[in-house]
Every structure is written in C-alpha cells, then in structure tokens.
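Ticket #4471: structure output looks truncated?

Reporter: J.K.
Steps to reproduce: submitted the chain below (503 residues) through the standard prediction queue, then opened the result file.
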Amino acid sequence: METSVSVFVFCIFIHFLPYVSAKPPHIVFIVADDYGWNDVGFRNPSVLTPNIDKLARSGMILNSSYVMPVCTPSRNSFMTGQYAFKSGLQHIVILPQQATCAPLNNTFLPQKLKELGYATHAIGKWHLGFCKWECTPTYRGFDTFYGYYNGAEDYYNLSIAGGKDFRDNRTPVNATGEYSTILYARRAESIIKDHDASKPMYMYLPFQSVHEPLQVPQKYSDIYSKVHTESRRTYLGMVTAMDEAIGNITKALKTKGMFNDTLIVFTADNGGWITYAGNNYPLRGGKTTVFEGGTRATAFVSGAGIQKSNYVYPGMIHAVDWMPTVLSAAGGTPDPTLDGIDQWDSLRTAGESKRTEFIYNIDDLRPEICGHAAIRMGDYKLIDGYPGAYQDWYKPDQVVSDLYDGYPGAYQDWYKPDQVVSDLYKNVSINHTRPFDDIMMLFNLKDDPNEHVDLSNKHPDIVKKLKSRLEYYHKQIVPANFPSISPSSAPSNYGGFWTPGWC
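Returned output as attached by the reporter:
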C-alpha cells in the first residue's frame, strides 16, 4: 500500500515538475507599424519575409488576432490590457503638440514584469504621449528606451514636424543618416549580447516600419523591380528590411544561447494604410477603419512554451489580451478586472480561445473619422455608424489617394498654437461621416470574413442583440482626451528636440 502511494505521489510530482521548475521565458514582443494583412510571405508569396515566415511556422499564425484601427489605441491596449475608450485614447492618435498621454493611473506591462525580476527594454516607436517625463518609457516600467516619442518621423534624419525626435533613455540623439530599422536591430543585438541570460528579459520592439514616410535603402526596393508602382516597391522594400532586422535579432538570440528560452510575439498595430501602399486584400478596408482590413492583424506566437508548430490558430484574440497573456507566460497573475483575458493556456496548448466578444472601438468625438463603433459577438459583427474612409477591397498596386486631406496621422499638416484640431475635419464630417449616422451594418464573419454581405435588414433580431451589448460597453466610456495644440510643445523651446516638460 505504501509503495502504491509513493508511486502515485512520484507520478504527480513528475507531471507538475515542468511547471514548477521551468524558469520564466525571455519575451520579445514585436510590433510592425501599419503592416498589411497581405504583406507577409506566409500569406502572399510575392512578399519576401523569410525570417518572419520561419518564426511564424515554427509556432502558430494567429488568424483572428485583432487590434484597434490606428496606432495609439492599440499600443495603449498592449500595455494596459484596457480598451482605449476607457482611457480616453479612442479618438485618432496622440499628436506631437497635444498635452496628453496614456493615463498615469494605469499600470503598464513592463512595470508588472519588473516585479517578477525581468530586465525590460523598449526599442522603437512610443506614441503614448510625452508631454511630461512621467509619460515616457523609462518612467513606465522600462529599464532602457532607444527610439522616438511621436507617431512617425523621417527614417534617416529622425525628425518630424520641425523637431528632432530620438532618445537614448532620456538623452537626445542626433541623426547620423543611417536607416532607423538598422539602428533598432543593432541596439537589440547589443542588449541581447550584454544581457545576463540567467535573468529573464522582456524586449518590446515596436518598429518604425512600415509606417509612412515611404523610405528604404534602394537595395531593398530593387528586389521588387517587377512591382508596377513606386510606392508599393518602396513599401515592400521596407517590409523586407524589417524582416532582415528580425532575422539579425533572432541570430543574436541564438548566438547568446537564449533563443530556445524566448517567447516571441509578433503583431501589427493596425491594418495596412491604403494610401501608403499597405495592402489588406482580400479583407475590406484598411488602417483608420473598423472593417477587418483595419483591425485584423498579421500576428503569430513562437518559441518558449508554444507546444504546436506549423499551425494556423483560429481562436479570437484582441489587443487588450496581450498584457495579461504575456504576464501569465512570465509567471505573473493578471488582474481579473482588466478588459484583457489571459489567453496563455489557450495559446501554449493551441486550445480554444477564452474570448467570445470584443469591441473594435467606440468613439463619440465628432467627426469620428476612424470609425464610430463596432462590436463582435461570436460570428457576428455590428458596425454602428461611420466605419472609416477606406470602405472598399483594394488589390496590391492599386493607387488610392488620401481620403482625408490633412489627416493628422499622416503628419502632413501641422497646426498653429491653440488651434482646435477637430475644426480641421468639418469637411470630412459633412462629406463622409454624417450620411452614416443612422446606418448599421451586420456581417457574419464565419461565412463572410471579407464583409461583402450586409445582413442588417435580414436579421434585425441579431442587430438588436449586438446593439444592446454595444450600449452596455458605451456606458463605460471615458470622454476622448484630444486637446488643442499647445504652443509650449515647440521643439525650438528645447534645443530643436521634441522634449517632455510642458504639461
């Protein structure tokens, strides 16, 4: 009898030993900016992304991974596990001259990881506000930061809207003329080389690529000489340059002996921007819309803990899930009150997703040029009001003019002090959003993933159900924090650099 009990206890011990003894994984969280659904090799063989493809196929391609329609809201969700409409960040993006940032009362993922003993590093684009130092990466949980605060900049001179924008931690850095993607990869390689591998590392790597401006060393665009349009050739060259950088970082992990102990998460922050050669075909729409082309992300997980490989995972995941999921993978205990759901067990075992519904966005600030509101419940999706400007199905090489003249996310038009930004969109509001005020669209994404058939007239009962659920979330909204331009932000006040300290 005692022998039987001993054997039973031993078997139980052996069963749970991997979970007890396994050390926390290193985690590399890669964000590709404005990266299209149709702009990756594992989905479109004409795009050369051998390193991304290899990583994705060694793990799981996430076929139903969702983000927000534009940059800032997605990044806030990655960091906090909270919907942007509960943070006041649901309206467009944070502009350089706006005195706002991701709410300081929200805990960021790296802050929780540091409590677990992680070394934390951020390399690339921030875009969560910088008007005060407390808004910036090294005050929000990162040991180091190497990159820029704003939403876009020149890839070579590292400047935007009359100011330079590049930091090594808090220290301003002048451009050397080198392509930024190369700079980021080199810094990542250096951090990996110098890291004490006995301590877990979290590297947040939000690339500048492939956001406009469309710029890349010619050797990369020359690869696509058969592509008809110059903008698409350049964009695809940017994709391949980013892929090469990811390959170099992967190589550094292997050289250091860390690769097998590293969990790699890769996601876009929103869909490809149609005007700037991003492509989401056959999905409908693109960046700045709540259609699938703007919100269904190219994404994968690979490496430590992921038990299945060469698999397309169908389960539903949302941007808010990454904070609790990564924290759980690191051995932490996520806050159960977050909007995000801990999906780690589902991902590591390729099990059923724990998510059955999510909000695409809710934005009440007129004009809601990136879409008013949308919800998914099960297979059904309801769009309430204006969906965003890009409402068609766009094929590669198709030239599309900017449907927003001076949309601020394009960083084309910069504003006078104290200008009310919403005034700039009066024409957009009249010409685009108002005809949709009383319109609802219903789609069955299981049968119609590309949103061709509006079922709202056929299924008013389903419309009513989803609208009721959307209204439940709407009651939780925090008014959008989208202030006027502040003259105190001017880089001329800070030696030519965009610099915190003016709010």
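Triage note (M.O.): checked the attachment and the full token line is present. The chain is about 25% helix and 15% strand.
Status: closed, working as intended.
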